[in-house]
C-alpha cells in the first residue's frame, strides 16, 4: 500500500512511500489540493490573455472540448500545466512559484 507523507513546507512537494521498498514519487501541488506527478509534467506555462497566441488559444479550446481541461481553483488562473496524459490544469499559482516548487530553473 502507498501512504501519504506530510507536505514538505519549503517546496510543497509530496512523497509516497511503498511499505516494502524505498520508492519515492514526487508530486507538485498546483492548488486546490490537486497534485500532479512531477515526472508527468510536460511543461508549465504562463497564462496571460494579452500574451497568449492564437495557436495556444486553439490548443486550449481543443483540450477543453475533449474534457481534459481541469482547474486547480476558482481564482483567475495565472498558469497552466500540461501533463503527459494530455491533460491541462489551470492554476492560480504563478509559473515562477510552480517552478520553484519543482526545483527547476525559470
Write a brief caption for the model.
The protein is an alpha+beta fold and 106 residues long. The chain has 2 helices and 8 strands; from the N terminus they run E-E-E-E-E-H-E-E-E-H.
Rg of Cα set: 15 Å
Question: Ends: how far apart?
Answer: 35 Å
User: In total, how many beta strands?
Assistant: 8
Low-confidence stretches: 1-15
Number of helices: 2
Coarse morphology: globular
Could you describe the largest sheet, including whether it forms a barrel?
4 strands, antiparallel
What integer is the average pLDDT? 80
Strand line-up across the major sheet: 1-2-3-4
Residue share in helices?
10-25%
The helix-strand sequence is: EEEEEHEEEH
Q: How would you describe this protein?
A:
This protein has a four-stranded antiparallel β-sheet with strand order 1-2-3-4, with no helix packed on it. A four-stranded mixed β-sheet has the order 5-7-8-6. Helices cover 18% and strands 38% of the residues. By secondary structure, the chain is an alpha+beta fold. The radius of gyration is 15 Å and the shape is globular. It has helices at residues 54-65, 95-101; strands at 2-4, 13-18, 24-31, 34-37, 41-46, 69-72, 79-83, 88-91. It has two helices and eight strands. The longest helix is centred in the middle third of the chain and has 12 residues, at 54-65.
Amino acid at each position: 500500500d502507498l501512504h501519504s507523507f506530510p507536505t514538505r513546507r519549503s517546496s510543497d512537494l509530496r512523497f509516497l512511500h511503498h511499505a516494502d521498498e524505498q520508492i519515492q514519487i514526487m508530486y507538485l501541488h498546483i492548488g486546490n489540493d490537486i497534485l500532479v506527478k512531477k515526472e508527468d509534467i510536460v511543461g508549465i506555462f504562463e497564462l496571460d490573455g494579452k500574451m497568449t497566441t492564437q495557436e495556444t488559444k486553439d490548443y486550449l479550446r481543443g483540450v477543453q472540448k475533449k474534457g481534459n481541461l481541469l482547474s486547480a481553483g476558482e481564482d483567475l488562473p495565472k498558469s497552466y500545466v500540461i501533463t503527459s496524459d494530455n491533460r491541462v490544469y489551470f492554476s492560480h499559482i504563478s509559473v515562477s512559484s510552480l517552478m520553484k516548487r519543482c526545483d527547476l530553473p525559470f
